[in-house]
Amino acid sequence: EVQLLESGGGLVQPGGSLRLSCAVSGLTFSTYAMGWVRQAPGKGLEWVSGISGSGDNTYYADSVKGRFTISRDNFKNTLYLQMNSLRAEDTAIYYCAKGRRTAPRDAFDIWGQGTMVTVSS
Amino acid sequence: DIQMTQSPSTLSASVGDRVTITCRASQSISSWLAWYQQKPGKAPKLLIYKTSSLESGVPSRFSGGGSGTEFTLIINSLQPDDFATYYCQQYSSYSFTFGPGTKVDIK
Questions:
Q1: Cβ neighbours of A101 in B, within 8 Å
Q2: Residues A16/A119, Cβ–Cβ less than 8 Å
Q3: Torsion over CA of B1, B7, B9 and B15, rounded to 10 degrees?
Q4: Helix then strand then coil, % of chain B, to nearest 5
């Protein structure tokens, strides 16, 4: 069974940093593109960032470009999101999600349970 | 970036109804569209990918169609478990934008 387990969320002050992790099990991690999607309280889904299976290609929403960095460790089967210069509007549940196939662009078929990030003083 | 819109934003329906949700893209995305269902406090669940392909395990009462810039999600014979919020998402090009969602509630 494929499982995605996020961690690293919490309360952080504006301007602070946080690193999210997503531990993946049950598949050959390096063959799948992965992504992060967030959901602010009471709001819709917002795609945040994506990364190819090899990690060579990364993509960001304009709202986080230059502040967030996505990466992966294919030996540890773990996806990361380094978040810097955090703002109140970054407050959200952050989900990691797996691409459905090995293609670089595909729908997300498996999602983690989410980790809450709260940016507040 | 490609912008996605959905209509209606809220839909009131009864068990057994046929429900149609529309999703529009600001430019052509070919067939690179997915539909997700989300219930309160839960992660989204993939229902349909590539416009009309049903994800494994998803009931056949769900179907999708369209191409280019206009797409539909149809739920035939709405069941109690289907009351939820539905999102479309384009994955034609990064960013993989989502629509704002359609909440299906009980009439």
A1: none
A2: yes
A3: -140
A4: 5, 50, 50
Give, as one character, the DSSP assignment of residue B81.
G
Structure token pair of residue A69? 């960095």
Distance from CA of A111 to the nearest CA of B (A): 6
pLDDT in tens, B33-70: 999 999 999 999 999 999 999 999 999 999 999 999 99
Q: Among all chains, which residue has been given the structure tokens 């893209």? A: B25
Give the mean pLDDT of A42-46: 98
CB-CB neighbours of B10 under 10 Å: 10
Cα A57 vs. chain centroid, distance in angstroms?
A: 15
Q: Which residue of B has its CA nearest to A49?
A: B95
pLDDT band at A103 (very low <50, low <70, confident <90, very high): confident
Q: Give me the pLDDT at residue A62, please.
A: 95
How far apart (Å, rounded) are the C-alpha atoms in residues B65 and B3? 19
Task: Please name which of A47, A80, A53, A41 lies closest in space to residue A65, comparing C-alpha atoms.
Answer: A47
Find out whether B85 and B101 touch, Cβ atoms under 8 Å.
yes
The one-letter code for the residue type at B91 is Y
Q: Is residue A104 predicted with pLDDT exceeding 80?
A: no
In sequence order, the 6+-apart residues with CB closer than 8 A to the CB of B4 are B23, B24, B25, B26, B88, B89, B90, B97, B98, B99, B100
Interchain CB distance below 8 Å, A105 and B55:
no
Q: How many residues does chain A have?
A: 121
Exposure on the CB side of residue A33, measured as CA atoms within 13 A: 22
